[in-house]
UniProtKB/TrEMBL annotation:
GO annotation, biological process: pyrimidine nucleobase catabolic process
Lineage: Bacteria, Bacillati, Bacillota, Bacilli, Bacillales
Protein name (Swiss-Prot/TrEMBL): Flavin oxidoreductase
GO MF entry, a single one: FMN binding
Domain Flavin reductase like: 10-150
Tree of life domain: Bacteria
Amino acid sequence: MDSRIFRDAMGRFATGVTVVTTQVDDETHGMTANAFMSVSLDPKLVTISIDHNAKMYSQIKQSQQFAVSILSDEQMDVSMHFAGQKENPAAVQFDFVSGIPVIRDALTAVVCNVIEFYEVGDHTLFIGEVLEIKLTDGNPLAFFGGKYGSYQPV
């Protein structure tokens, strides 16, 4: 199967947009990701999927912590910055929750300790035990077919 067809097919699944962050040696690192999901309520666990070639892969392995900030529909510039699509450091502001950087004004920030990781294909699934959650009001930034959009309730 052609890799482009697979990517196009997976792009037909509408997702929210997140920025995964961590801190190594007092330096904050982040990347845009949509490979995020809830795993368990008891204990509270989430997972993220990180490409082995991404800088974030070694940073999370080193820090053993990460945060997932679910972006609002007003934070497309933040997503584009961390996706390497548009340099806009002024759009990025951090808060710290349990010592981990999170995106300021994100709809949700989920802060985790890595408890397991599994190498699967060209990615690693990092399982995080949720330490703390921060919630903010707003509407989510959506992603579908390689394009940003907004959520429209029916």
